[in-house]
Structure formats: structure tokens, C-alpha cells
Design brief:
The chain is an alpha+beta fold. 23% of the residues lie in helices and 41% in strands. The longest helix is centred in the last third of the chain and has 9 residues. It is globular, with a radius of gyration of 12 Å.
């Protein structure tokens, strides 16, 4: 099963995340199949590739709870 989740990058106090599609059995920072976008919680900067996110969601990729809440917040998916 494929999951859509965050991969952490950056230093300890300055983390940012990449939105990746990865097998559910892989570790958090493992090698992804696709890198879709980036998110920085410190600067609140969000860069989404909406077309690829929707394409992956329609093909059966399951987002994590945190990612699902963020996608609802930015109105990419509906609740």
C-alpha cells in the first residue's frame, strides 16, 4: 500500500518537510517514489503540486492524518 506523508529535511531547530509518496512499510525518511511538494511550518510556506496530489489520491494513495488535515485546510480535498 502506498502512503502520502511528510519526509523531514533540514536541521533540528529548522525543520521543513517534503510531501512524498512512499510504501507504507518504508521508514519516514526512506527513498520516496514521488516528491510532490514542500511545507515549512516555521515560515508557513506551502508549495503544492495540486495536479499530482489529486492524481495520486485518485489512484488510491492514502494520506496520513496530519497530511489529510493540511489538505483540507488548504482546500485541496473536501471533508
Amino acid at each position: 500500500m502506498l502512503k502520502m506523508r511528510f519526509k523531514s529535511i533540514g536541521r533540528k531547530a529548522q525543520l521543513s518537510y517534503r510531501l512524498v509518496v512512499i510504501p507504507s512499510t518504508s521508514r519516514r525518511d526512506g527513498r520516496p517514489i514521488h516528491e510532490l511538494s514542500s511545507y515549512s511550518p516555521i515560515t508557513k510556506e506551502i508549495k503544492f503540486d495540486i495536479e499530482n496530489i489529486i492524481k495520486n489520491l485518485n489512484s488510491g494513495v492514502q494520506p496520513t492524518k496530519t497530511l489529510r488535515n493540511l489538505l483540507i485546510k488548504v482546500k485541496i480535498i473536501e471533508f
